[in-house]
Amino acid sequence: MMRHLIVGGGPAGQCALQTIRALDRDAEISLVCDEPAYARMVLPYYLEGKIEERAVLTADTDWYAEQRVATHFGSRVVAIDPGGGSVALDGGETLEFDRLLIATGSRAARPPIPGLAGDGVVNMWTLDDAKAFLEKPRGETVIVGAGFIAFTVLDAIVARSEKVSFVEIESQILPRMLDATAAAQMAAHLEARGIAIHTGTSVDAIEDDGGRRSLRLGNGERLLADAVVVAAGIQPNTELVAGSGITTGAGPGAGILVDDHLQTSAANVYAAGDVAEGFDLLTGEQRVHAIQPTAVDHGRVAGANMVGSDVTYAGSLTMNILAAQGLEACSFGDWAGDGREVHTALNAPNRIYRKYVFDGNKMVGGALVGPTLSVTGVNDVGMLKGLVQTGVPLGPWKAYLLENPLDLRRVYVASGAAKQLLASTLLTGSASAGGGFRFPALPPTRKRSKHHETLLEGKSAPA
Ligand SMILES: Cc1cc2nc3c(=O)[nH]c(=O)nc-3n(C[C@H](O)[C@H](O)[C@H](O)COP(=O)(O)OP(=O)(O)OC[C@H]3O[C@@H](n4cnc5c(N)ncnc54)[C@H](O)[C@@H]3O)c2cc1C
Question: What is the second-level CATH architecture of the domain 3-43+53-106+236-306?
C-alpha cells in the first residue's frame, strides 16, 4: 500500500489529498501542517465579518477521519531525506513516505524597514494576522505595498479604519497586475472615496510617536497611523529542503523547481502551489505564480501523478482578479503586451477600461476594469480568461471585437473557447471528486447580496 505524505494544508495540499483519495481508496495519506488547514483567499470574508472563524477552515475533524487521513496539525517539517523516504518534524518525530508532496506555500515578505517588527505592524497573510488586525482599535491605517494582496483585504481595512493610505514604491498602484491607464482608473476611484495614495516612494522607517506609528517616507513626508499593514510581496517556504538535494530556483523569492508532472529533482518528491516554480502556460518559463488557481491545478496534477497516473501539466496562466470599493479589475496572460499588438478602450468617467493583447489572430493577454456589480463585467472576466487560456484563433471575430470591445460574449462563444476549456478542467474527473460540503453539522445560511436586490428587486446598483 502506497504511503503518501503531504506537507501543507492550503489549497495545493488539500487538492492533492482529495485527488489521491479519489484515485486510490486504499492509499495511506498523512497531512502535516503547522497551521489549521484553510484557503487564505477566504480571509477577506472573515475580516469583513461575512463568515465566522470555523467557516474559514477547509474541513472539520470528522471529514479527515472519513477520508482516512492521519493529520499532524501544529507540527512543522524541518528536514527531508528523499533517499531514506522520511521527514523530520520539529517535535523530534520522524514520518516515513513512499511519495512526498511539499505544499508549504509562501509567507509575507518582510522588507528590511527599521521598526517593521514593532507593535501595531501586521501582515495580512495568515488567520492569526487577520485576528490580530481585528483586535486593533479603529483608527488610521497605512498599507505598505499597493499590490494584489493589499487589494483583496482593502474593503475590510476600510470598514475598520477612520482613514486609509497606501504607500507604494513603484510609480503606480497594482504594478504587477495593471498597466498605468488601468491603475489610474482604480487610483482615481479610491481617491474619490478618501483613500490617500503615495506612489513612487519608499517607507524608510516606522517609529513610535506617542504610542502611534510614524512612517518616514523616502520623499521626506511623514504619515501617522494606528495600524500598519505590510503587503510587500511573498517569500516561498523552501527552508525545509535545505540539505535534501532537492533543487530550487535562483535568487530571492525562488521556489522549488518542478517538471511538467510537478516532480522535483528527487523522483519520490513532488512540490505544488506557492512554494513551487512551475511552468507558465504562455511563456513556458519557470516561476512562482503565488495564486490560488495555480495551487489548485498543481495540487490536482501532483496528486494524480503521485498515485501513478501520468498527467502532464500544460502550465499555469498568469491571472489576477480583484474587487475593491465597488470596482473590479483583472488581468490575464501577457497583459502588459510590450512589443505586441495592443488595443484598448477607455470610458474614464465610468471607470471602464478594456485591453486586448494579440499575437496574430490569438489573444495572448488582456485586462478589464469596471464596476463590480455590472453583470457584463462579471461574466467578461471569465470569458477573457478563457480566450487567453485557450489561445483559440479568433478568425473574423478579432475584427468584430476591435469594433465592439465591450462584446466579448459573442467572440467567446463563436471561437469555441468553452469547448476547449472543458477538457482541461476535467483533468482528474469531476472538480468536486472526493469533496462536497465538509461541514455536515453546519446548517445552510444565506444572506441576500446587493446583487440580488439589483437584479430581482429593481433597486439600482450602489455607486
Ligand atoms: C488575504 C489573502 C487573499 C488572497 N486572495 C487571493 C485571491 O483572491 N485569488 C488568488 O488567486 N489568490 C489569493 N491569495 C493567494 C493564495 O491564497 C495563495 O496563492 C494560496 O494560498 C497558495 O496555496 P498553497 O497551498 O500553495 O500555500 P498556503 O495556502 O500558504 O498553505 C501552505 C501551508 O503550509 C504550512 N507550512 C509551511 N511550511 C511548513 C512546514 N515546514 N511544515 C508544515 N507546514 C508548513 C503553512 O503554514 C500553510 O498553512 C490570497 C492570499 C491572501 C493572504
Answer: 3-Layer(bba) Sandwich (3.50)
